[in-house]
Amino acid sequence: MSRVLVSDDSGSVRVSEAALVQLVDGAVAGVEGARLRRRRRLSLELADGHARADLEISAAYGSVLHETARAVQERVAGALTGTCGVEVDAVDVAVVELTR
């Protein structure tokens, strides 16, 4: 399955679900102590130049959870904006696991 980024008279640009998951996974991995929990839930919506992501992460035990989640939000939004050229409406992050 793929998502349409741009569609006009000259054609369209599509990005596969797998590529979007890799993009989000890389952004989350860039935050120290955070890891994407793909098997649990990752939802990405792209439409009309806008994006919304809903994801679950694991965080390192002892990390400040709201700071880790905020850093994940910023990284994912930056990755989607920079790579896909979309405006990010929201990145919802749930911390569902602590790891040592």
Main β-sheet, in a few words?
4 strands, mixed
Residues in β-strands, percent: over 45%
Low-confidence stretches: none
Overall pLDDT score = 90
Question: Number of folding domains?
Answer: 1
CATH architecture: 2-Layer Sandwich
CATH topology, by name, is Alpha-Beta Plaits
Summary keywords:
elongated; two-stranded antiparallel ribbon; 4-stranded mixed sheet; Alpha-Beta Plaits; 46% strand; 6 strands
If you had to describe this structure to a student in words, what would you say it looks like?
This protein has helices at 17-29, 65-84; strands spanning 2-8, 11-16, 34-36, 42-47, 50-60, 87-99. With 100 residues, the protein is an alpha+beta fold. It has a single domain (18-99), classed as Cation efflux protein, cytoplasmic domain (Alpha-Beta Plaits). Helix 1 crosses helix 2 (65-84).
Q: How do the helices and strands line up, and which of them pair or pack?
A:
Elements: E1 2-8, E2 11-16, H1 17-29, E3 34-36, E4 42-47, E5 50-60, H2 65-84, E6 87-99
Parallel strand pairs: 5-6
Antiparallel strand pairs: 1-2, 3-5, 4-5
